[in-house]
Structures are given as structure tokens and as C-alpha cells.
């Protein structure tokens, strides 16, 4: 007797949605170690610094940079970037690139400040950094990293999913307020007890007070 399962009892799992739609199988995104992120940063010379304007609006500047002892150094002119970081020192810095078979990106978050020491400029090696821009850049910005994160994924992992309109709330709904008594309800009376007379107290005769 044939012991193979009948078609109606086949336990083979259904194909994934990607296979049904003819898309390549999903590839896992590789999260890079901090040491590898810094290695990629050290091999790069071009990135993008995201800052906040003095009026609160965001902005992004493409810049050339160098790395030294856990910090990024950017050459700059006396321009808006110096004003922005003076008002809002928190910044983000992004670098990306590719190899023969993968794409990668690294994001640094930290604080930016103007470099005011000639010794620090010399030690950082930023003097040897050539800017791609023809604008003269005599000043230096230092970005001290607070967090560093990176990702890498294969080049053949691209997707073209059909877009759909977003429904729902971007932010989670706030929890409902706890029930509380209405302001229109009268307050509960506080229990009141008549104090007991002590042995030293002398009772007062109301008739005596009237006769006096």
C-alpha cells in the first residue's frame, strides 16, 4: 500500500508571499559591529551631516571628513553650519558605500563643536584632508560620537513591493484617562464626634448664667 500522504493531507507549508509574487526571497539585513563601522568610516572621505537650524528646521550638508580617536572632523568655511551647531549641537552623520556584492551604510549620532585648539587640529590629521568644494575652508568642526550603527545587505535583495495607502495612526493612541469623580458631585461629609469632657472640666449650668 502506498503510504504517501494524499493531496488533501499534504503538510507541505504554502510558499511565502515573495515566491507567490515572483519576488526574490527576503535577505536578512546584517547589523554591523561598532568596530566594523569605524573601519568603514576610516576608509571613507565623503559623508552627510544633518543639523538643526537656529529656527528649528532641519538641513543636510555634504562634506568631506576625517576620523580620529572616536570623532569625526569636518573642514568648513565661516558659514551657516557653524551658527547651527552653536545653537543646536546635536547632529547626525551618514556615510554609505558598496562592494562588489553588497551595499552598506553607517550612521553616527553625537554632538558637534568648533575646534579651537591648533594642537587638536594637528593631531586629528584634518590638515591633510582635501575638500571637494572650491570654497576656502579654514575652520574645523568636531563631531564626538555618542552612538554608531551600521547595516549591510546584498545587492540582489532589492524589492519593488506594490505601495499601498497608509491607514491608522503613526503614533500609538494615548491610554484613556482614569475615571474620576465629577466636579459637580458634592463632597462626602467628614465624620464628626462630640469631644468627651475631661475630669478637670467643670460643667456649666445654663440657668446660673442667666441668673448672673
UniProtKB/TrEMBL annotation:
Pfam families: Pyridox_ox_2. Residues 1-24, 153-212 are annotated as: Disordered. Signal peptide: none annotated. Residues 7-24, 168-183 have a biased composition (Basic and acidic residues). It comes from the Bacteria. This is Pyridoxamine 5'-phosphate oxidase family protein.
